[in-house]
Amino acid sequence: MSSASYPANTVDQALHLLQTVFGYPAFRSQQGQIVEHVVHGGDALVLMPTGGGKSLCYQIPALIRHGVGIVVSPLIALMQDQVDALAEVGVRAAFLNSTQSFDEILGVEKKMREGELDLVYIAPERLLTQRCLELLEVVDIALFAIDEAHCVSQWGHDFRPEYIRLSILHERFPQVPRIALTATADQQTRDEIIHRLRLENALQFVSSFDRPNIRYQIVEKGNGRKQLLDFIQAQHAGDAGIVYCLSRKKVEETAEFLNENGITSLPYHAGMDMTERSRNQARFLREDGIIMCATIAFGMGIDKPDVRFVAHLDLPKSVEGYYQETGRAGRDGASANAWMAYGLQDVVQQRRMIDESEANDTYKRVQGVKLDAMLSLCETLNCRRVHILDYFGQASDPCGNCDTCLSPPTSFDGTIAAQKILSTIYRVDQRFAAGHIVDILRGIDTERVQQWRHEQLSTYGIGSDKSEAEWRAILRQLIALGLIAVDYENYSSLKLTEASRAVLRGETKVQLRQYKKAEKAVKHKRQSAKDYAEAELGAEEQALFDKLRWWRVETARTHNVPAYVIFPDATLREIARNAPQTLTALRAISGVGDKKLDSYGAEILQLIAELHAT
Ligand code: ADP
Ligand code: ZN
Fold first, then answer.
1. Ligand nearest to the CA of 184
2. CB of 409 closer than 6 A to ligand 1?
3. What's the pLDDT at 480?
4. How many CB atoms lie within 10 A of CB 467?
5. How far is residue 12 from each of residues 3, 92, 151, 411, 431, measured CA to CA in Å?
6. For the CA of 27, the nearest atom of ligand 1
7. Is the dihedral of CA 335, 156, 279, 340 positive or negative?
8. Whose CA is nearest to atom 2 of ligand 1?
9. Distances, alpha carbon 213 to alpha carbons 193, 330, 385, 427, in Å
10. Quick one: pLDDT at residue 303?
11. C-alpha–C-alpha distance, residues 581 and 606, integer Å
12. Ligand 2 centroid – CA 525 distance (Å)
């Protein structure tokens, strides 16, 4: 896409708005090209990782083009914050959704008709009403932005039926440019978005999906909760983070466990009532250092920039899901951790959920393929990031910032171990679950062993050289590799598969990942993003930074907005480092635009002066 085909003043105008309104010196990655394209009336499909900076891609064109920009978003709970954040930089924004009174709606509609708004966020179900479509006929529309566009995909994890009907925008307003945005990159979803939203003529902008500041780490699960606690205490004391669990019950138990151990944690899942959920979400967004324990119901559109870690206590269903969830860490670009504990039970549980689901066979097959890809990420001997990016069709080199790069796992020829397990399964007529099989191999004298006289099996005790955890790790890999099947209808008993016969006959070799005893999380100076960032500040700078953070808490409270809406950490840190003495010097800092300079400039200079005086 060459910018030469457009009048230069569009580029200048866009850059000018970026600098004066948003206070950022330059566009990131493809933002500039996307803005130009949309300003000139083109349709666009934007694929950018979470935290990549999608919002500016429609906000700036909406400011440049005549009329109001309509943003379709399913995230009703976040609309208030989005509108507040825009108000802070002086952009006239509002929203229309089901949480408003009729009077409020009338008020917004009136402003739209009178051309007094730059951006309006609308929930899809509201947009599709007759009333709203008629309103749109009579107002001047700058563009349609369709946020979280993957919601149109039926195979995706966030399917919203209303999204399918959004093709109406193209039919009724063919002259208005449309920009669809998502962080979900796989080809299938992409194709579905294009097809369903009628974006065949849209230009596609696919950014790199790498999030270099996130460190990926997948550990062998022992006592998951305890490992989580160690991880948080060692690396994330005082940080905000998200812990994902599979079930509502586990969410609540984990939150309670963390609270008992002195870590402020809140639960979030779809089984809680709406008020409590929104309250917890608001606290997580507004207060510093809260840990949210949640099911995947939590997170879409959460744009809190300073989430320092995302932890998974259970295996996600797909790499897409995993990447989207972990992508909520470190949006501000500072280092962050994606940590997961993974074990045999995860594989068994996820396979069972697919098996027992009532969906049709095609759907089950798709889910099975997705799970296999996730398992292969967990078991890989290579760089996690290379593996993930490759899944999204992007080639890369080993990153140096994931667990397998930092302490490479070793592999071993597991053929004999596999044969020991497989023949034990065979000898017990494929009627027993993992625990008993491991007991037999290790020669443990249990009641069940005695009851079935399994001490007489030729494989009894032939695996006493390995610990229980080691055998479970091997079993897990064999299940992940499809060499063992689990029969959920019969007490999760283990069965041989077609593929396992070749291993038993010695025709196929099995290469396995060497079991690593869960290391106690140690406090690496560089590993904690907070340490890293704070280490860079001198004592005096740190004092100013702390002071600025206090000021921000107070200001955010008076304005009733999340702290990061006032200024993100990165901006405060830069102010602390430069200690500007004049408004001009303050204005030069990334994240300080005209309106914020106007609102807060004097107060900040005052804070700096006070500190220097003491
Ligand atoms: P996404 O919607 O893609 O997840 P956002 O639009 O919320 O990402 O942007 C993530 C963060 O990056 C925000 O804090 C935003 O202000 C910041 N940001 C976006 N573009 C730029 C830029 N060009 N320069 C500096 N910061 C930016
Ligand atoms: Zn790596």
1. 1
2. no
3. 84
4. 14
5. 11, 22, 34, 55, 72
6. 23
7. negative
8. 54
9. 29, 7, 11, 50
10. 77
11. 9
12. 19
Q: What is the C-alpha separation between 255 and 294, in angstroms, rounded?
A: 9
DSSP 3-state assignment of 267?
Answer: strand
Pocket probe mutation, ligand 1, options 24, 209, 300, 328, max atoms within 8 Å of Cβ: 24
Among all bound ligands, the one having the nearest atom to the CA of 390 is 2
Residues 6+ apart with CB under 8 A from 332: 51, 305, 306, 568, 569, 570
> For ligand 1, is residue 48 a contact (CB within 6 Å)?
yes
Identify whether the C-beta of residue 27 lies closer than 8 Å to the C-beta of residue 55.
Answer: no
- Distance CA(65)–CA(75), nearest Å, equals 25
What span, in angstroms and rounded, lies between the C-alpha atoms of 588 and 568?
15
Q: Which domains does the chain have, with CATH numbers?
A: 10-206 (3.40.50.300), 214-406 (3.40.50.300), 411-513 (1.10.10.10), 539-613 (1.10.150.80)
Query: Which ligand ends up closest to the CA of 589?
Result: 1
Statement: the pTM of the whole predicted model exceeds 0.85: no
The whole-angstrom separation of Cα 119 and Cα 86 is 9
Q: What contacts 294, CB < 8 A, 6 or more positions away? A: 242, 243, 244, 245, 251, 267, 268, 269
Q: Is 303 in the pocket of ligand 1 (CB under 6 A)?
A: yes
Coil, helix or strand at residue 340: strand
DSSP secondary structure code for residue 18 in this structure: I
Q: What is the pLDDT of residue 520?
A: 58
According to the model, what pLDDT value does residue 2 have?
39
Give the model's pLDDT for residue 530: 43
User: Which residues lie below 8 Å from residue 610, measured CB to CB, with a gap of 6+?
Assistant: none
Instruction: Profile the chain (614 residues) by mean pLDDT over runs of 10 residues.
Output: 55 94 93 96 93 93 97 89 94 95 96 97 95 96 96 81 93 96 83 94 92 94 95 93 97 98 96 93 88 92 86 95 92 91 91 86 86 92 94 90 93 95 96 95 95 95 94 90 85 90 93 77 45 64 91 90 88 93 96 96 95 78
Q: How many residues does the chain have?
A: 614
Cα→Cα distances 248→106, 251, 328, 500, Å: 39, 5, 20, 36
Ligand 1 nearest-atom number relative to CA 50 = 4
Q: In a mutational test of the pocket of ligand 1, which residue from 21, 55, 73, 302 has the highest number of ligand atoms less than 8 Å from its CB?
A: 55
User: Is there an atom of ligand 1 within 6 Å of 28 CB?
Assistant: yes
Residue 521: what pLDDT? Answer: 54
Q: Is 301 in the pocket of ligand 1 (CB under 6 A)?
A: no
**CA–CA distance from 139 to each of 109, 131, 135, 411 (Å)?**
10, 13, 7, 64
What is the model's pLDDT at position 560? 87
Tell me, in angstroms, the distance from the centre of ligand 2 to residue 206's CA: 22
* Atom 9 in ligand 1: residue holding the nearest Cα: 53
CB within 8 Å of 506: residues ≥ 6 apart = 415, 419
